Amino acid sequence: MPINIPRELPAGKALKQEKIFVMDENRAKTQDIRPLNIVILNLMPEKEKTELQLLRLLGNTPLQVNITFLRMVTHESKNVSKSHLDTFYSTFDEIKDRRFDGMIITGAPIEQLEFEEVTYWEEIKEVMEWSKQHVTSVLHICWGAQAALYYHYGIEKHALPKKYFGIFPHDITDPTIKLVRGFDEIVHAPHSRHTTVSYDAVKNNSELTLLSSTEDREPFIILSNDGKHVMITGHLEYDATTLGDEYTRDCDKGLDIELPENYYPHNDVTKKPLNTWRSHTHLLFSNWLNYYVYQQTPFEWK
């Protein structure tokens, strides 16, 4: 089934070229079906790239999905035009009286700041508090995952000695949990962050289940026991080239940045990186939408 997106959204053309079933607003109105309503709080700087990455995943399920993009009014985005935001994004005030079946809160390149130092932290807190009563399940990515762990469960983040940057293997602790149903024993995934959360703090929290981590005890997939929150500390949504783009950007800025680990074949930047996490990414999004959104959300919100 398709995703329903605004008619002129730039990502729509790319999705159709990839044979993702996309339906615009006009056609969707003729469908006699109860679609899922998903709101995406996109905090990433290159918003159009993130839109395409997430819509590609949400469009690969048998469910019809209506998409609403959300932005922060207390933050001015520098890498996307104001007209794009005005046309395709809503503010919290515009959607706060609605209820959504699912929500995605993305990462943001601000993890080296304390949460309270983030200019839009108060607005983020308001959205996360609102989600408790207005959203069935929330998927949090990277900084969004750290923010959720801090706000909902009091788990602090802390700085790493160096940037955790590359493709890393993770084990699955309990393959019977529906979120990771069908996963292999080892899952590869991209990470790009300067901070982490304590393995022990997550393991010892009675409200959380740690579903996946690395051999060196880096938490990866965390699920609240009520299914309300899914926290992914990496970037499963990334394309094969995304880490390479970040590496080139940082090099151009003159930053002291190492090659992303396990990324370029033989650590040769002239070799094309392979996407070794695509299948698990699609499976995780499908499992989340099916088991934690579709099968849990009320048919009619009251």
UniProtKB/TrEMBL annotation:
What is the recorded function of this protein according to its Swiss-Prot or TrEMBL entry? Transfers an acetyl group from acetyl-CoA to L-homoserine, forming acetyl-L-homoserine.
Q: In which pathway does it act?
A: Amino-acid biosynthesis; L-methionine biosynthesis via de novo pathway; O-acetyl-L-homoserine from L-homoserine: step 1/1
Residues with site note (Important for acyl-CoA specificity): E111
Under NCBIfam families, the record lists: metA
Q: What is the lineage of its organism?
A: Bacteria, Bacillati, Bacillota, Bacilli, Bacillales
- HAMAP family annotated for this entry? MetA_acyltransf
- Subcellular location, principal: cytoplasm
Protein's recorded name? Homoserine O-acetyltransferase
Q: Where in the cell is it found?
A: Cytoplasm
Q: Pfam families per the record?
A: HTS
Report the sequence similarity comment from the record: Belongs to the MetA family.
Q: Report the GO molecular function annotations.
A: homoserine O-succinyltransferase activity
Name the positions where substrate binds.
Answer: K163, S192, R249
- Is-annotated flag, keyword Lyase? no
- Return the EC number: 2.3.1.31
InterPro entries for this protein: Class_I_gatase-like, HST_MetA, MetA_family
Origin organism of this chain? Virgibacillus tibetensis
- What does the record give as the reaction this protein catalyses? L-homoserine + acetyl-CoA = O-acetyl-L-homoserine + CoA
